[in-house]
Design brief:
single chain, alpha+beta, 3 helices, 28% strand, 2 domains
Length: 252
């Protein structure tokens, strides 16, 4: 009986030794692989970082960490020294594992009260969620002028029925996703990274008197966005809009 127990203990010890040896070998292989690619140390988000978080807070609360990566995988403009961000703040939300980029950390004055969005006089910034198709296949970018076409049950000649008609025309896009018009430091590119069917926020400069209308339309109807040419003119519209009766001219 004692010999059997001893044999089991020996087997367990050997298994643990083999496992430890395998871990050491794998870690060593990883280090050898990286060492052959001219590795460098960069800073990444250890946890999600919310826009507006100061670099000093991120450092003190261990929201960031330093990792070694092959030189070819380092993003241009990556943070390599904490001095680059300690007196700045995150301009956008950062995901865990994301390399810290200098252009995504800005001066406090750039996020402290409307500097990110240049809202026109007598307008308000309003974000609505649209998938890529409804954003002209994702080609809408900050600074563009767009129009909104609404489809929902609307009153008109012949009573209430499903209609499509312009809700607003020639309004300015302030931001798409986290990419804002005014603060180029926060931008990682013009378009939001959207997959098919993925919804992204589009922030618009809406005339104050139309804000309630747009919110109601977004809650109860279906909105498509059209992208305008720089010299686009307002499209004449009728109260009737497009319906099943008139959408095809001369339909029998």
């Amino acid at each position: 009986m004692q010999s059997r127990v001893l044999a089991i203990l020996v087997a367990v010890v050997l298994a643990l030794v083999a496992t430890a040896a395998l871990v050491v070998y794998v870690n060593g292989a990883d280090r050898r692989a990286i060492s052959g690619q001219n590795p460098r140390m960069v800073w990444v988000a250890a946890k999600p970082i919310t826009a507006g978080t100061s670099g000093l807070t991120a450092i003190n609360t261990k929201l960031i960490k330093q990792v070694e990566v092959p030189s070819k995988n380092i993003v241009t403009g990556a943070v390599v020294s904490l001095a680059q961000i300690q007196n700045r703040v995150a301009a956008v939300n950062l995901e865990a594992g994301e390399q810290l980029l200098q252009k995504r950390w800005v001066g406090a004055e750039d996020v402290a009260g409307g500097r990110l969005l240049p809202i026109e006089s007598d307008h308000q910034a309003l974000a609505i969620g649209l998938d890529a198709v409804r954003q002209v296949a994702g080609f809408v970018t900050p600074g563009d002028r767009v129009s909104l076409v609404l489809t929902m049950k609307l009153p008109g000649p012949g009573g209430e029925r499903d209609r499509s008609r312009f809700l607003l025309q020639n309004i300015q896009v302030l931001a798409v996703g986290n990419t804002a018009l005014a603060n180029t430091a926060a931008q990682g590119g013009g378009r939001a990274n959207q997959g098919k069917g993925q919804v992204a926020a589009v922030t618009l400069s809406i005339p104050q008197g139309e804000v309630e209308h747009v919110v109601y339309a977004a809650e109860h109807g279906s909105i498509y966005m059209t992208l305008l040419a720089p010299d686009a003119k307002r499209v004449p519209t009728s109260n009737g809009g497009a319906t099943a009766d008139n959408v095809v001219s001369g339909a029998q």
